Amino acid sequence: MARDSQLITATAPAKVILTGEHFVVHGQPALAAAIDIYSKVTVRSNIPKVIEISSSALGITSKFSIKQLEKKSNQISNDGVMDPLKRIVEKILQMAGEIDRGLKIQIDSKIPVGVGLGSSASTAVSTTMAVTRYLNLELEKNDIFEIASIQEKLIHKKPSGIDCITATYGGVIFFKIGKVPEYLKPNNSINIVIGDTRSKRSTGDLVTKVTQRVNLGDGEIRRISKSAGKLTMEAVKSYREGDFDNLGKLMNKNQKFLQEIGVSTVQLDRLVNIAQQAGALGAKLTGAGGGGCMIALCRPDNKYKVANAIENAGGISYIVSINNTGVTSENLST
Question: What residues contact residue 260 under an 8 Å CB cut-off, 6+ apart?
């Protein structure tokens, strides 16, 4: 049982997709990387039977009880933004046999929301880790991933699981649905610049749009999907060999595939082109597309030039490194 004075915090990284988004949902492989932008969740005690979840970034506080969830009367206050996280908390309290426990859960995330960097997955993973550690449940990382996936399935309708896996384990991951993820050897030479178009979108809606085309037997999208799968296999080989010139070329080719299936935008294409002109080895959108972010693979000596070019074009740039640890927790109790 958790002590009332206990204070637990957990952090989980954001992610980028180097190759393979959208196609990964339909059985093709993808290459993802965790990056050093984080969600942070802090858990402390509350009055019995009341769960309070607050997000500083969203400016939202939601209070509820597990009994209300069971009756599907989800809210004491505010709208349903927090509902998926509530389901995670419900699951953990049931596992711990502490259904009447009161908790205050504070979310402080630096990850932009709705732009393709896995903010919801990162928050789900850090929340899961913080609450389980608070309740003294010593779970393996795979258990953390499984619980956190509850939220992703509610938000994104048909997620591949790649976002939660990357936030949980960190590093560079070769992922395919139904296969054990492969964690590639860290290479600190990789330099990534993110460009945010300042335009948000719905991952679930975009994934559904592509899925409908696949289900209707769209031969063209099936052809592109198979080609994207082969591309990712070559990208993994290039990453292992440290051949970032070729990895960049493959990212450029992957962007063309994403344009062909209709998930890129004028704004994304513009930032991709600007990054390439500034000397990036390769550039593409990351995540679902339809807005959000693009990424550029850069040499160490030109990452600032690429970032400045993105800013001058009206985007928001982030120079990031690979996070190799995934989700972590800390007991801050005195």
Answer: 220, 224
Q: Convert the pLDDT of each residue in 244-273 to its tens digit.
A: 999 999 999 999 999 999 999 999 999 999
Contact (CB, 8 A) for 10 and 133: yes
Burial readout 9-39 (b: 16 or more C-beta within 10 A, e: otherwise): bbbbbbbbbbbbbbbbbbebbbbbbbbbbbb
Q: Report domain 8-182's class.
A: alpha beta
Top-tier CATH class for 187-320: alpha beta
Binned at pLDDT 50, 70 and 90, residue 44 comes out as very high
Residue 227 near residue 161, CB atoms below 8 Å: no
Of residues 70, 130, 66, 71, the one with CA closest to residue 98: 66
What residue spans define the domains of the chain?
8-182, 187-320
Residue 115: CB atoms within 10 Å: 25
pTM for this structure? 0.91
Length of the chain: 334
Whether 201 and 268 have beta carbons less than 8 Å apart is answered as no
Active-site residue flag, 36: no
Beta pairing, strands 60-64 & 172-175? unpaired
Q: DSSP letters of 105-125?
A: EEEEE-SPTTSSS-HHHHHHH
Which residue out of 4, 163, 196, 301 is catalytically annotated? 163
